[in-house]
Amino acid sequence: MKRIGVTGHRCIPDEALDHVESGLRDVLGGHEGPLEALSSLAEGADQMFAAIALEYGAGLTVVIPSGDYEDAFEDTASLARYRGLKRRATQEVRMDFARSTDEAYYAAGTYIADSCDRLVAVWDGLPARGHGGTAEIVAYARALGKPVTVIWREGVTRD
Predict the structure, then answer these.
(1) Which end of the chain is less crowded, N or C, counting CB atoms within 10 A of the terminal residue's CB?
(2) Residues 82, 137, 110, CA angle at the centre, nearest 5°?
(3) Cβ-count burial of 150 within 10 angstroms (0-12 exposed, 13-18 middle, 19+ buried)?
(4) Residue whose C-alpha is closest to residue 28's, from 40, 45, 16, 11
(5) Can you give the pTM of this predicted structure?
(6) Burial class (CB in 10 A: 0-12, 13-18, 19+), 127
(7) Nearest of 5, 91, 72, 78 to residue 44 by alpha carbon
(8) Dist CA 136 CA 100 (whole Å)
(9) How many CA atoms does the CB half-sphere of 2 hold within 13 Å?
(10) Which residues of 54-79 are buried (b: 16+ CB within 10 A; e: fewer)?
C-alpha cells in the first residue's frame, strides 16, 4: 500500500485554489493500487487533500496534534468539515499533547513525514511562520530522503 501524507497552508488564496485542487487530484488520482492518505485535517490544504483522497477511495489516517485540537478551528464551517472527514477516517493517531502548540503541530507533521512514502506540500516556498510550519516539515521530509511534491501556483502570495 502506498502512503501519501500532506503538509500545507491553512489559508490558500482564491487565485491558487483551482491550481492546488488540480495538483492534488493529479497526485492522488494518478496512483494505481491501494492508497492511504495521512492528514491532520487542518483548515485549508489538509482538508482539501483528505476530501480528494476519500473521493479516490483512499483510506484516511488522521493525525491529531493535541487533545484540544478542535479549539484551534477558527470557524464552525471548517470545524464541521474536520469532524465530517474525521468520521470517515479508517485510522486515528493522537499525539501526546494536551494543548495545540507549535510543538504539537511539529510532532504531527513529522509523524506524517516519517510514516508516508511521499509527502505532498501545498507550499508557497517561503520560510515557515512558526515551528511546525509547512517549510519546516518539507525540510524534515527531504532530510529523511522522502520524495516531496510541491503544489503552488507561481506568482501567488499568501497574506
Answers:
(1) C
(2) 75
(3) middle
(4) 45
(5) 0.96
(6) exposed
(7) 78
(8) 17
(9) 17
(10) beeebbbbbbbbbeebeebbeeeebe
- What would the DSSP string read from start to end of 53-97? HHHTT-EEEEEE--TTGGGG-SSHHHHHHHHHHHHT-SEEEE-S-
Amino acid at 18: D
Dmax (CA) of the chain: 38
Q: Where along the chain do its domains lie?
A: 2-151
pLDDT digits (tens, 9 = 90+) for 115-158: 999 999 999 999 988 888 999 999 999 999 999 999 999 999 88
Return the CATH class of domain 2-151.
alpha beta
3-state helix, strand, coil in the chain (%, to 5): 40, 20, 40
- Map residue 88 onto helix, strand or coil: coil
DSSP, collapsed to helix, strand or coil, labels residue 74 as coil
Contact 113, 120 (CB under 8 A): no
Q: Give the residue carrying C-alpha cell 494536551.
A: 98
Q: Using 50, 70 and 90 to split pLDDT, how confident is the model at 1? A: confident
